[in-house]
Design a protein that fits this description.
single chain, alpha+beta, Transferase(Phosphotransferase), domain 1
Length: 404
């Protein structure tokens, strides 16, 4: 939507008549102009107070040269430019149509059909822009225009105080709109150039906004939003299926973890399947369980030596021999908390796939048995020692009395 010219706005730039204002940024203004043949055009220029800034003028010239390399199907085509004019200006194709921000503001989140069309168009435009060696740095709904069923990406940050993709840079400043800035864009001290991955992060925020009407990191203030972008996971409520997966990957904190625009486009067009979660780690093969018990018919016949030797279960310890035998009516009654005795019972047949239960109380029972045997032996040894001592004493005393 255009607004009337303000006091101090130029009436003409070069051969182009300025009719009204289309918008303005922090460092420049966009006008609706008219070419000599009557064609409507968009004219971008620096503000008067920044005309004499050599850094900004050099960046302006660099951006004009790069924009000429961007394919015209995805953005407003460059028609003319004069970086040496006072003020310098750039003339591009005028795209008659609402921005994505205006469309959502008027009609709410996009429906499925329009959403898919806009996402495909915006992704294709971003792939072409990156293919030309340009980083947009301000990819947001205000800069995505919907016109005659096509999508055009405009405003490549020409009127911005910093262009970290060119040789004309300033330090300690950030470029972009906070809600659509990648985490690495908030670091103004590293000196590292902003890569196309920053545009991919903005793509993820833009797609979420187009589908739900809100951004994944929205907060009550710009600093709070920046903090959520840097430290919190995105809120992707309302996104489902493949689109949710793609947006989640695009909003990764590390630039290296984000897909490229070309990869996103291939997935959206069905030329490439989206990456799936890695297969679960292989678990080690479990150790074989204890062998199943054999039935009497399956057991091998014992040798003569085995028949004569008692088994460990048949051996009677000294402590067991001292315990009274319980009455017959108490033998079959198990103690509380203990399983009933299976001595003499017919063994249970099990299939080969069912392992026999493992008895964990054998070591403890053997330990108690050894302890009892040791105590009994000690008592018997003490009693034997006492008897021998008394016998020797009486023999000595009797021998002394018989001496003359």
């Amino acid at each position: 939507m255009s607004t009337p010219l303000r006091a101090g706005d130029p009436a003409r730039l070069g051969a182009y008549e300025l009719v009204s204002r289309l918008g303005s940024g922090g460092m420049g203004t966009v006008y609706l102009g008219r070419a000599p043949g009557g064609r409507q055009v968009a004219v971008k220029t620096l503000r008067t107070e920044y005309v004499w800034d050599s850094e900004l003028r050099g960046r302006f010239r660099s951006e004009v040269n790069r924009l000429r390399e961007v394919p015209p199907f995805c953005t407003a085509a460059v028609l003319d430019a004069d970086p040496d004019h006072e003020p310098p200006y750039l003339v591009v194709e005028y795209v008659a149509g609402p921005s994505l921000a205006d469309e959502i503001r008027s009609n709410g989140p996009l429906g499925p059909d329009l959403l898919h069309s806009v996402i495909i168009g915006a992704t294709a435009a971003l792939a072409a822009i990156h293919g030309a060696g340009v980083v947009h740095r301000d990819f947001k709904p205000n800069n995505v225009l919907i016109s005659l069923g096509s999508v055009k990406v405009i405003d490549f940050g020409i009127a911005r105080p910093l262009d970290v993709t060119s040789a004309h840079t300033l330090t300690g400043q950030m470029v972009g709109t906070v809600e659509y800035m990648a985490p690495e864009c908030f670091d103004t001290t590293s000196g590292s150039p902003v890569s196309p991955a920053a545009d991919i992060f903005a793509w993820g925020v833009l797609v979420a906004f187009a589908a739900t009407g809100r951004t994944p990191f929205g907060a009550h203030s710009a600093p709070a939003t920046a903090m959520r972008i840097a430290t919190q996971p995105p809120d992707l409520t309302g996104l489902n299926g493949q689109l949710r997966s793609l947006v989640g990957r695009a909003l990764a904190k590390r630039p290296a973890d984000r897909p490229t625009a070309r990869e996103l486009l291939d997935v959206l067009l069905g030329h490439q399947t989206p990456p799936t979660a890695p297969p679960p780690a292989a678990h080690p093969t479990p150790a074989p369980g204890p062998r199943p018990a054999l039935s009497p018919s399956q057991r091998p016949a014992p040798s003569p030596s085995q028949r004569s030797a008692p088994s460990p279960s048949q051996r009677v310890s000294p402590s067991a021999a001292l315990r009274p035998t319980p009455p017959p009516d108490q033998r079959s009654t198990p103690l509380p908390g203990r399983p009933p005795s299976t001595q003499g019972a017919h063994p249970v047949r099990r299939s080969s796939s069912t392992p026999a239960p493992v008895r964990h109380d054998v070591p403890a029972k053997d330990s108690r048995t050894f302890t009892r045997v040791f105590v009994i032996l000690m008592v018997l040894t003490g009693m034997l020692g006492t008897i021998l001592t008394a016998t020797v004493y009486f023999l000595i005393e009797g021998g002394l009395d018989n001496l003359p």
